[in-house]
Amino acid sequence: MRIKYNLPISFLMIVLATSAMAATPLLRFADIHKDQVTFVYGGDIYIADTNGGEAKRLTSHEGFETFPKFSRDGSKIAFTAEYTGSRQVYVMNADGSGMKQLTWYNDVGAMPPRGGYDYRIYDWSADDKNVLVRANRLPWGIRMGQPYWVPVAGGMEQPLPIPEAGGGMLSPDGSKMVYTIKDREFRTWKRYRGGRAQDVWIYDLKNNTSKQLTTHDATDHQPVWVGDDIYFISDRDYHLNLYRYVDGAEPVKVTQHDEYDSLWASAGPEAIVYENGGYLWRYDPQSNESQKLNITITANEEPVLATRKNVKNQIDSMALSPDAAQVMIAARGELFKASADHKEIRLVSRTPAAREIAVTWSPDGKHVAYLSDATGEYELYTRHVKSGQVTQITEDGHTWRYGPVWSPDSKKLAFGDTNQKLWVADIESKKTQQIDHSSRNDINDYRWAPDSNWLVYTKTENTGYSSVFVHNLEAGKTHRLTSAAFNDFAPVFDPKGNYLFFLSNRDYNLSFSSYEFNYLYHQATRVYAAQLNAEAPALYPFEKSKAENKDDEDSEIKVTIDLAGFDNRVVALPGNASNYFNLQSNGDAVFVVENAAG
């Protein structure tokens, strides 16, 4: 049904004017100089007034530009760009004119997203004659970098005595550098408390001495300098916020963001700019206040135009219908259905504002389940295949979820999340039940028994190995099946409920390395099986049960597991040890994928 609203023209004009003034999100890698801020949006560099208004685009090349940094006098901007096939350092006037290339040494090339980028701009020297750049030229890893002086007038860059660095900035007089030794800004480890957590250090470039400023087990990074004060970003109070360093005392928290993390702090002579929730914020040390910048961008609209895309290389997941006549495909955030009869692929979701992933088809063929971020967070959804009716199952999305798995009766879905919990959702009632919780790693390896009452999964032990567990939904009890002595994974019930199959690394095939003076163990995996109970037919010699020989498809399967002594019933199936994954069973045989070259 279409509803028509008759609104006054004046009202429409007010709405349009208000929309045009709304701040543009997704502004990143900003720097500030007095009342000017420069930043990256859509891979191009912009400049804007901190008082708000429309930004001016300074670059428009299809190559990615990033890390803009004002000179000390604010007249120039140094940045890195991909104009010539590799990433290099450039400088231009603050109005976008007078562009000049400063470096000619090859970058390290493409790295995984968590590795970040080569040629990161840190700062300018106090006299504006050199740009301080982090270049990834260390021999022990392409993701590690060292600070270099790059002359603005031209010439060879020179390394600083600092052997390795993450984020950092020079003191106002240029004689010292505040920095982190480790580089972890592009990693997605939230609330990390491990050996890669960063601390803030200070290096005296005149005396070649260093001093550690913070020792907290949280992440302290992105240090900057304003006047005599040092500030840094830290998640010691759960969310990443800006802190002021106090010599001999606890740092002072100066921003209070409690929804999104604060990222990429950068300082000018008077203030600090940082990113939070996709928007830029300005922190004023004098007033101790942080204010969101109301910057708008009306250029660079070409990417939002409707276009046709070939998404065959962006397939996320696929699911066959039970009769194998159709397949549902999740690709580039949309759902597509392919049919063998019609020999065509149809777009069925049509949700350009949301992303659908991890699609799976229900055993009864009526629904598909998937994850979608239509609400802003990933939630579990089902879609009726014939009618197209979409139903949201969960409403508590606040962390990443792993792909759902249907129960054989098509009434429940199991899924894990990055809070290391395992869940079961009831499709009709939309209620979710926590099945288990891991204290080590995420639970993302789970399968159903044919009676939809047992859920088998693996959970990491304190030994670092994963063991097989089962949960009985009727009884509400969880049981361990295999010991912590081996690394067991990929458990799966056979469709008749007689056996449990799984993969395990229990072989020690010793080889001598062809490249190092060292021994290594490889191809350690075999397929293992165990009878679930005393009534299950023996595996050797294998014989079908009487019920199976009758081929009574209408008989109800009831899975029974003799928990006592389960580990003693485990046997290895014939075949050589190798690198196996993706174990499946059809009741008469097991199937596994071998990576012989791994």
> Unreliable runs, pLDDT <50, ≥5 residues?
1-20
Rg for CA atoms: 29 Å
Strand content is: 35-45%
- Strands of the largest sheet, in order across it? 1-2-3-5
Q: Assign an overall shape.
A: elongated
Average the pLDDT over all residues and give the rounded result.
91
Q: Strand tally, please?
A: 50
| Distance N to C terminus | 57 Å
Q: What kind of sheet is the major sheet?
A: 4 strands, antiparallel
Structure description:
This protein has 598 residues and is mainly beta. Helix content is 3%, strand content 41%. The strands form 14 sheets. It has a 4-stranded antiparallel β-sheet, with no helix packed on it. Strand 27 and strand 28 (326-331) form a beta hairpin. It is elongated.
Structural descriptors:
598 residues; mainly beta; four-stranded antiparallel sheet; disordered N terminus
Give the topology, please.
Elements: H1 9-21, E1 28-33, E2 36-41, E3 44-49, E4 53-54, E5 56-57, E6 65-70, E7 76-81, E8 88-93, E9 100-101, E10 120-124, E11 130-135, E12 146-151, E13 158-159, E14 168-170, E15 176-180, E16 200-204, E17 209-212, E18 220-226, E19 229-234, E20 241-244, E21 252-253, E22 262-267, E23 272-276, E24 279-284, E25 289-292, E26 295-296, E27 315-320, E28 326-331, E29 334-339, E30 344-347, E31 356-361, E32 367-372, E33 379-384, E34 390-392, E35 405-406, E36 412-416, E37 421-426, E38 432-437, E39 446-448, E40 454-460, E41 466-472, E42 477-480, E43 487-493, E44 499-505, E45 509-512, E46 519-522, E47 525-531, H2 546-550, E48 571-572, E49 580-585, E50 590-594
